[in-house]
Amino acid sequence: MSGSYRRLVVRCVAVLGLLAGLISPTFALEKVRVGVLEFGTVNWEMDVIQTHKLAEQQGIELEVVPLASADASTVALQGGAVDMIVSDWVWVARQRAADFDYTLFPYSNAVGELLVKVDSPIKTLADLKGKKLGVAGGASDKSWLLLRAFAQQTQKLDLQAETEPQYAAPPLLNELMQRGDLDAVLNFWNYAARLKAAGMRSIITVPDTLEGLGIQRDLPLIGWVFSEKWAKEHAATVNGFLKASYAAKQIMQADDAEWVRLRPRMKADDDAVFTALRDGFRAGIPACFGDKEKQAATDTFRILAEIGGEKLVGTAKVLDKGVFWPDFSLPACTK
Which residues form the Solute-binding protein family 3/N-terminal domain (predicted)? Predict the structure, then answer.
């Protein structure tokens, strides 16, 4: 190689190195670590985001971190192992009252339901007196507390005292219900969907209890949760992720073929379960969120604080305005 040619090669390499240094940061994807329950329904949306490269379109490298439980999710967020999780705004309010700066943007309206066997003599909440009632999520579960508040306010019925609550994990509750070891069960939406597909009958849904308490039905109880400080430092990334999340939801809302592709993840044993899970997820997609929904959340928090007490809400007295992330928005609800 001649000296002049060697010098030309060296110069070209130097120029390419300089260009790489200028260009790479501009196009580098910013990583977002999302903690999800290993077998939870959030995985379905993560699959859609990854399959359609919706995060990359927003300049984001999505890392999905599987976690074993809801408690593991909050621990991972608090310990800095993940950037985002799905949790509820009651937890966020409790953390903010303890001087932790978490904030939330709505993820889903899907909530639980109270079910009995199709031939059960139970027709109303009053018929639950003396019955074994399975409850998912424990004694401080939000759906259980709202059901208790509804029963007390509308029928002067103390479900805690006048039934035999059985607290257990959602899959176990479904098993116990199908075996006939429970008279009724209040379970999360995706487990309730499986029971309904198996022929069980609904007594009341959580949206029904909200409406009966004078609160609008379509209230998102869960959302994407993240640190407000981190979000302000990475605002474009956070909002880009939320755009990707809602782009995935729109695909899932409109495209039946996408659900056929997702079916192996759903562990649907038959077509009835598959359809119930698909339709339940779709029904829970928030189409709008605005001031009315924030006021509904404030009213719901007051009820939950009254019945759940400090064990549920900690030192929080009211729903902090910072609970909801303000820098991303859905259309305002018109009804």
Answer: 31-256
